[in-house]
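Practice problem 4.
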């Protein structure tokens, strides 16, 4: 069995979204609609800016001004977008939080920290510090935070900076289950595949949860201490079913939307089994059939 491709992960998440029901389906649908957007790509730049820095934000009755739009492009050209991507997904999923609708100029530098604090406040945060034996892993729609900007929470080739990812599905790899996520960042928004590793150094019920790099053979390379050779420690994740919503529970778009998603490679629709149809794709710049996953 080979590692799943981005297209296969996208298809699995898409096909499972309706099965999750509300509210998880809304988070997965919102995440998939952003896949492939990047400021660096001229073909997706405008939509990247619209989705992350302009849409669903309250600029007043007249909408964003030309100065607001110019500022949004400036933000987009320089900002890593992991936390902003999660906020866009939460807003699209109908989370009842006015902060998500503030223009980004009023949220600079606070995205991941705010989401963490808010999730704790409303009882949606699943703490991994420490990780308790028997705690379920995150499911589709949940938002996980890894790393704490120090070397102690990163190993091997993994960067030390803090990062947020959005789980879209679990897939079967050649060596066991892998977590498919949708991440913002630089240069853009893309699917990433990782593994989760539990470590209980003292053999008790309290330990650590690590997000591991996936090797080409699908394994999660571990050191003698049981921790990944390359990866970042998880601080925890938001269980999105515990968040408050404007409409409770939020209605899933599902059905027609998911069945009409087409994956486009070089302008030609790529088949997705029984789900594939031709038509207008809300993510029509994604070149799914042309790239493999990049474990990270």
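Answer key:
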């Amino acid at each position: 069995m080979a590692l799943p491709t981005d297209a296969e992960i996208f298809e699995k998440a898409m096909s499972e979204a309706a099965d999750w029901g509300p509210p998880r389906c809304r988070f997965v649908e919102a995440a998939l609609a952003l896949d492939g957007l990047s400021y660096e790509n001229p073909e997706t730049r405008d939509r990247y800016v619209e989705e992350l820095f302009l849409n669903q934000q309250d600029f007043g009755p007249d909408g964003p001004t030309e100065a607001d739009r110019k500022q949004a492009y400036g933000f987009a050209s320089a900002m890593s977008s992991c936390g902003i991507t999660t906020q866009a997904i939460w807003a699209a999923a109908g989370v009842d939080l006015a902060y998500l609708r503030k223009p980004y100029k009023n949220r600079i530098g606070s995205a991941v920290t705010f989401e963490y604090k808010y999730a704790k406040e409303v009882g949606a945060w699943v703490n991994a510090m420490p990780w308790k034996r028997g705690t379920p892993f995150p499911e589709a729609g949940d938002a996980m935070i890894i790393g704490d900007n120090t070397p102690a929470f990163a190993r091997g080739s993994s960067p030390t900076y803090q990062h947020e990812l959005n789980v879209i599905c679990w897939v079967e790899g050649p060596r066991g289950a892998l977590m498919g996520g949708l991440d913002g960042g630089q240069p853009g928004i893309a699917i990433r595949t990782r593994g989760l590793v539990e470590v209980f150094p003292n053999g008790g019920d309290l330990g650590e949860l690590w997000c591991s790099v996936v090797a080409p053979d699908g394994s999660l390379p571990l050191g003698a201490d049981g921790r990944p050779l390359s990866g970042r420690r998880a601080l925890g994740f938001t269980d999105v079913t515990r968040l408050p919503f404007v409409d409770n529970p939020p209605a899933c778009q599902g059905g027609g939307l998911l069945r009409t998603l087409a994956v486009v490679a070089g302008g030609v629709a790529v088949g997705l089994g029984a789900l594939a149809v031709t038509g207008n794709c809300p993510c029509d710049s994604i070149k799914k059939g042309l790239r493999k996953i990049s474990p990270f």
